[in-house]
Write a structure and sequence with these properties.
Layout lengths: L1 H25 L2 E3 L7 E8 L6 H20 L3 E3 L2 E11 L7 H10 L5 E3 L4 H13 L4 E3 L15 E3 L9 H10 L4 E7 L2 H16 L3 E8 L7 H9 L4 E5 L2 H13 L6 E5 L6 H6 L6 E5 L9 H7 L2 E2 L4 H14 L11 H20 L4 H10 L2 E3 L2 E3 L14 E6 L2 E6 L38 H36 L1
Parallel strand pairs: 2-4, 2-5, 5-6, 6-7, 8-9, 8-10, 10-11, 11-12, 13-14
Antiparallel strand pairs: 1-4, 3-4, 12-16, 14-15, 16-17
Length: about 475
């Protein structure tokens, strides 16, 4: 009997210990944590852990930066009342299966007025039907796939340029600067990258460019040597593709380490992050990426006036100032560095929503959605205008950014360029014939990760550690119960 009591006590104590750990994994967070007076609640499922955590932290902090600006500049004027914004968000762990329950919880329990979509096309696809079911506007800041907006959703509205436009600028550079270009497309077999590359392949052929190799790899792939060697064997000297951060970084590193002499490289998502250069060092120089935005863009109230558009929101430098404030005062924003375009997309979503609310003069979602159809404005992110029927973004234009001498510079289009595109970067064309040997699964950074990056990684992995602890506790309880039953 004493043995049984001891086992039961152990099981009970383990269960009690596990409950708060579970609560942490599903607990919502908000910014600001408290708001006095009238409040407009915006819900957001966002990836603070898992595959999209790098992009997710950027998007969260971009949204917070714009919320800070709005709340500091008089709030939102609606029907004679002034409202402050509050963001309520959950970590979706980069998993599509979590989206329906999170969105439903935000709408039915947290009572949010509007929604920001999660990051990525796949997660946005999983969240959109729930927002549609409850007739709540969801602004897509990281779901670029055109296919999402071909499903007839009324309440889904896109802020970023669609996937079909992502590599158009890179192809224009290749066409103009590399007469002997032979293009290899190596890309992630996901909704976003596939949509981008399929549109790019079609456009490349229309432009008369020579596409010599295409390969879609499965999400989570870390070894690219087979694809790289196949592309090299076909004479490819231009690499376009990628998918998200980790795979894009690995693809670039292994291409360099395997001695692939490339004249131009444009990779989706990964090079936009400041830590891309921190982790790859000189390998990053010459790597370009299509971007929705960069800190060096020239959008301004003066540019809006010349274009005949209304300017709304902070200037580029003002918004960056608020982003830096968020870095120093919001734990989830610490250590993420310079704002990447994923941050600007989410920040622009907040501004587009606020402008539509004020124009509608109500918080009614149908009225606000109607107001969005009539907006044609310029913000720090650029022009914003949607197709009224589909919600697809038709006003915003992409740019091409390239790492040059450790800095991100805009190289396309010419009217916005800070520098000429770097073709055949010297670090990819060594003067000796000896190249580095890469292990097929190597993703090790070229330099030691900084203390800041290490801290950020530790934060991102916390949810995974908690989940592992819970699993271990459950196993211990099961073993204990089995032992008790045998006595």
């Amino acid at each position: 009997m004493e043995y049984k009591r001891a086992v039961m006590a152990l099981m009970l104590s383990l269960l009690v210990a596990a409950l708060p750990l579970y609560a942490i994994t599903v607990h919502s967070l908000s910014f600001p944590s408290t708001v006095s007076g009238n409040v407009i609640k915006i819900g957001m499922p966002i990836s603070l852990s898992g595959h999209f955590s790098t992009e997710g932290h950027q998007a969260l902090c971009g949204a917070i930066a714009s919320i800070l600006w709005v709340n500091d500049h008089g709030g939102v004027k609606v029907g004679g009342k002034t409202y402050k914004l509050q963001l309520i968000y959950y970590d979706d762990a980069s998993s599509a299966k979590n989206e329906p329950s999170i969105v439903q919880k935000l709408v039915t329990q947290d009572k949010v007025n509007f929604l920001l979509a999660p990051y990525s096309s796949g997660l946005t696809s999983a969240a959109a039907p729930i927002a549609e079911q409850y007739h709540v506007i969801m602004l897509s800041h990281g779901g670029a796939s055109n296919a999402i907006f071909e499903k007839g959703y009324h309440y889904l509205v896109q802020i970023l340029s669609p996937a079909s436009e992502y590599l158009a600028g890179a192809l224009e550079i290749v066409k103009e600067k590399i007469p002997d270009a032979k293009i290899a497309f190596i890309y992630e077999n996901g909704k976003f990258a596939s949509a981008v590359v399929q549109a790019a392949i079609k456009k490349a052929k229309e432009m008369g460019l020579d596409v010599v190799y295409t390969k879609a790899y499965e999400p989570g792939t870390t070894s690219f040597s087979t694809f790289i060697n196949e592309a090299k064997a076909r004479g490819a000297n231009v690499l376009l593709g990628g998918g998200h951060y980790e795979d894009g970084k690995a693809l670039v590193k292994q291409a360099h380490d395997l001695g692939w002499h490339l004249k131009f490289i444009a990779i989706l998502v990964a090079p936009a992050q400041p830590k891309f250069y921190q982790e790859l060092d000189d390998i990053a120089n010459g790597v370009a990426f299509p971007a929705q935005w960069a800190p060096g863009v020239k959008y301004s109230p003066e540019m809006a006036k010349k274009a005949g558009l209304e300017w709304f929101g902070p200037t580029v430098q003002e918004w960056i100032k608020y982003f830096k404030y968020a870095q120093g005062n919001v734990s989830a924003c610490k250590g993420i560095g310079t704002p990447a375009y994923q941050a600007a997309e989410a920040g622009a979503a907040i501004l587009f929503l606020v402008k539509a609310i004020e124009k509608a003069g109500t918080l009614n979602n149908d009225a606000v959605r109607q107001a969005m159809n009539t907006l044609d404005i310029m913000t720090f992110f650029g022009r914003l205008k949607i197709d009224p029927k589909t919600g697809l973004q038709i006003g915003h234009k992409m740019i091409v950014v390239q790492w040059q001498n450790g800095k991100q510079v805009i190289v396309w289009p010419p009217e916005a360029a800070q520098a000429q595109p770097l073709i055949a970067p010297p670090n990819w064309w060594p003067t000796t014939t000896t190249s580095k040997t890469a292990t097929t699964s190597s993703t090790t950074p070229a330099t030691t990760t900084s203390p800041t990056a290490t801290t950020t990684t530790a934060k991102k992995s916390r949810a995974g550690v908690i989940a592992a602890i819970i699993v271990i506790i459950i196993i211990i309880i099961a073993v204990a119960a089995w032992a008790l039953a045998r006595r």
